[in-house]
Specification:
Elements lengths: L5 H30 L5 H5 L3 H42 L2 H11 L2 H22 L2 E2 L2 E2 L1
Antiparallel strand pairs: 1-2
Helix pairs in contact: 3-5, 4-5
């Protein structure tokens, strides 16, 4: 076996160090490609790290507000449907009662009163509805 000279050994050590560095960088790059995330983000961003944190926080706020708006939209549509059904249940009651009273028809007045009581029951039942754990 031929002895290794000093220049050859230094070159070998330098080359093996560079190979190890390249292997590490390749492993990091593989991981970043596989996960879609940069491992050492502060090093890549430098002074823009604060801006990245602000953007991340803004994205979280948007997601939170999107959920709140969706809940409010759901509650608003339920309220709108409830009011429409109450209007449908009580439509024409005042005209029927006024006509029956004007004619002096006691039976018609009682029927209009029963209809009004039914409309009120419907309104109360619809307004007691619960949406996502909360009453209207």
């Amino acid at each position: 076996m031929k002895p290794i000279g000093i220049p050859t050994q230094l070159s070998f050590e330098r080359l093996s160090g560079a190979v190890a560095l390249l292997r590490g960088q390749a492993a990091t790059a593989r991981n970043e490609v596989a996960t879609g995330r940069i491992e050492k983000l502060p090093e890549h961003l430098g002074s823009a790290t604060g801006d990245a944190q602000l953007l991340r926080r803004a994205a979280q706020d948007i997601a939170l507000r999107r959920d709140m708006i969706a809940r409010a939209d759901l509650r608003g549509s339920v309220v709108q449907d409830t009011l429409a059904s109450i209007q449908a249940a009580t439509a024409g009651l005042h005209a029927d009662l006024a006509a029956a009273t004007g004619r002096g028809d006691e039976t018609a007045v009682r029927a209009a009163a029963r209809d009004a009581a039914g409309g009120l029951d419907t309104a109360i039942a619809r307004l007691n509805a619960r949406v996502e754990g909360g009453a209207l």
